[in-house]
Amino acid sequence: MNFQEAHTYLDDLQFHKIKLGLDSMRSFLARVGHPEQSLRCVHVAGTNGKGSVSVTLLTLLAGAGYRVGLYTSPHLSSVRERFRINDTHISTDKFAELATRIRGVLGADKITYFEFTTALALLWFAESNLDLVILETGMGGRLDATNVIVPLVSVITNVTMDHEAYLGTSVAAVAAEKAGIIKASVPLVSGLADDEGLAVVDRVCKEKKAPHYRYGRDFSAIQGADYLWSWEPGGDRLPACRLDSLRCSMRGSYQIVNASLALAVLALLQAQGFPVPPAAIRSGLARVRWPGRLEHICLNRQTRMVLASGLSSNGAAVCYLLDGAHNPAGVESLVRTLRQEYEYRRLIVVWGAMLDKDLDNTLPPMAELADVLLLTRPAGERAATPEQLMTHLNPAVRSRCECVADIEQALRRAEALAGDGDLIVVAGSLYLIGAARRFLVGELVE
Questions:
Q1: 433: containing domain
Q2: What is the pLDDT of residue 310?
Q3: Are residues 24 and 171 in the same domain?
Q4: Which end of the chain has fewer CB within 10 Å, C or N?
Q5: Kind of pairing between the strands at 212-214 and 243-246
Q6: What CA–CA distance (Å, rounded) separates 177 from 430?
Q7: What is the DSSP letter of 383?
Q8: What's the CA gap between 364 and 396, in Å, rounded?
């Protein structure tokens, strides 16, 4: 297959719905010689923040001279975004080569889209002479296709409600699924809140004799002035020293927590032969980039050229903030960040979401903050129509709401409404973010 044929073959696997379980992955990996067993990995799970932690680890380790693979999901617009070695995404030729190999091994057998991309990532990484691999779970953990490895360190960023149809309807149930990535004697780093989810994870750690290093107890972030902060281990459990004068490139106070988790992982990796100097940590944190997550894009209205960040003061520019917030915890973080860290005259929100998300606890908080709300529809059969979204709003909010089903038309409408000092926020679904970003600045991967 060439790349387009491989892409079409993969897209056809979308017809095989989400199927949690490891039997297919283990069977396939056995048939290709267990490439996962040759990899040294960090395994990252969690409801929110796992992508930020993963890309932060990649950036800091690569900056220290290591050759690191990164597998994340979902992608914004190109499936190749899921596969990286340091700053380089997988090539179209390599993708096609590995996809052809997978199809040949499978024969008449069928696997899901995520199982296929996970298998492709493991094969690519195993042949690429890497120092380390960072694998992000797709959903949950216990039955996630990535859970075929025994990592050097495991991470659970946090546990809140999402994907209830698959992971359970309580925090404890979701935590039990996330805790499925915990392996015997393998240390766990977490940002868990002190709730029923923590109790579940602590119990699993004790059962498996896996040391648990938790944010706020074993390490913490101390925020200072001008967005500078310090990372500090608590007690002597972590083999690390305090790091001062740190600055994250990504805005949002929760990104400091995500970065703190990454630094705790680095402290544990150091004992396993992966030292990262403080200078590489400081410079790396200032370079971390994770498109579609609190991503600020300013465009010249006429030329469509990307400008330096900052709200327009002369009508020549239009400014966007793209964020993949799609569950209650993510939206809460986005709203808090908009209130505390951004200044704008009016807020214009372009929102689209999947129908199976918790719309009653995601859309209304954004709608209350918005001066203008434009409801649109991402691609996909699961996407809610603007009219369906409207039913989750109270009458007072509906008066400043418009339905524009086409995403590009919704963005053009937002720009027409935006004046000096206004900010356009696009949120509600990573599918929406991917389409919006492609329209605004083009593909992330050439």
A1: 295-441
A2: 62
A3: yes
A4: C
A5: unpaired
A6: 23
A7: B
A8: 11
89 lies in a domain?
yes
pLDDT(387) > 70: yes
Task: Give Cβ neighbours of residue 102 (< 8 Å, ≥ 6 apart).
Answer: 28, 116, 119, 120, 123
Mean pLDDT of 35-40: 97
Summarised one tens digit per residue, pLDDT across range 327-352 is 998 999 999 999 998 999 999 999 99
Q: Which of 285, 316, 344 is the last residue of a domain?
A: 285
CA angle 77, 295, 445 (to 5 degrees): 30
| Of 285, 318, 334, the domain-final residue | 285
DSSP bridge partners of 68: 132
Q: Does an H or E element contain 426, and which?
A: strand 423-427
Query: Residue 428: pLDDT above 60?
Result: yes
Asked whether the predicted pLDDT for residue 199 surpasses 70, the reply is yes
pLDDT for residue 26: 96
- pLDDT above 80: residue 167: no
User: Strands 188-190 and 212-214, how do they pair?
Assistant: parallel
> Mind giving me the DSSP string for 84-151?
EETTEEPPHHHHHHHHHHHHHHHTT----HHHHHHHHHHHHHHTTT-SEEEEE-SS-STT-TTTT---
> Distance (Å, rounded) from C-alpha 17 to C-alpha 139?
13
What is the Rg, in whole angstroms, of the alpha carbon atoms belonging to the chain? 22
- 43 within 8 A of 149, measured Cβ to Cβ: yes
Q: What is the mean pLDDT of the chain?
A: 93
Q: Would you call 408 helix, strand, or coil by DSSP? A: helix
Calculated CA dihedral for residues 54, 366, 429, 195, nearest 10 degrees: 50
Query: Do residues 351 and 373 touch, judged by C-beta distance below 8 A?
Result: yes
Contact 83, 89 (CB under 8 A): yes
Backbone φ and ψ for 64, nearest 5 degrees, come out as: -90, 5
446 falls within a domain: no
Has residue 364 got a pLDDT over 70?
yes
Which range scores top for mean pLDDT: 124-133, 191-200, 317-326? 124-133
What Cα–Cα distance (Å) separates residue 117 from each residue in 34, 120, 186, 380? Answer: 16, 5, 25, 19
Q: Give Cα 392 distance to the centre of its chain.
A: 26
